[in-house]
Specification:
This protein is α+β, with helices and mostly antiparallel strands. Helix content is 29%, strand content 33%. α2 links the parallel β4 and β5.
Length: 151
């Protein structure tokens, strides 16, 4: 895949249809397009001076799709006056941990056994995650946007 990835804001109607399943109609986002095909989606939530990346999906790994989507959210977060861009992933998701850290996110918290609480709300969450790793913890990563503005 070349570098001609186009990112555009996600409309409410697109939100339901564009990523093979429902999204919260209240979450804004961006869709990545390559040659007219939907190849990625990010949703986010801004509260006060923090912007959370809620979902990030790409059908083409290592192609620049995820990076382009993060950059789009980072830009809107900065324009909205956010000081912090953050997200949560699980302890088994080594690919995500590698991906986010390479893009400037740092680990700020491990929420031990957080998935025990999540399973009470959503019992179908697996006990075993990627690579046979027990699925237990949530890992919080952040990027301070003030630091980027000073560079």
């Amino acid at each position: 895949m070349g570098r001609t990835i186009h990112v555009r804001a996600l409309g409410q109607q697109q939100g339901y249809l564009s990523w093979r399943g429902p999204l919260s109609p209240n979450l804004p986002g961006f869709v990545a397009l390559y040659k007219g095909e939907k190849v990625g989606l990010v949703t986010y939530n801004i509260v006060d001076e923090s912007c959370e990346i809620v979902t990030l999906n790409s059908t083409h790994l290592s192609s620049g799709v995820g990076t382009a989507l993060i950059e789009a959210v980072r830009d809107i977060a900065q324009k909205s006056g956010c000081k912090r861009l953050w997200l949560i992933t699980t302890n088994d998701n080594m690919n995500a941990l590698r991906f986010y850290q390479k893009r400037g996110f740092v680990l700020v918290a491990v929420h031990r056994n957080a998935l025990e609480v999540s399973r009470k709300l959503k019992p179908e969450i697996s006990m075993i995650g990627n690579d046979g790793i027990p699925l237990r913890d949530e890992i919080e990563l952040e990027m301070m946007l003030d630091d980027l503005a000073e560079q």
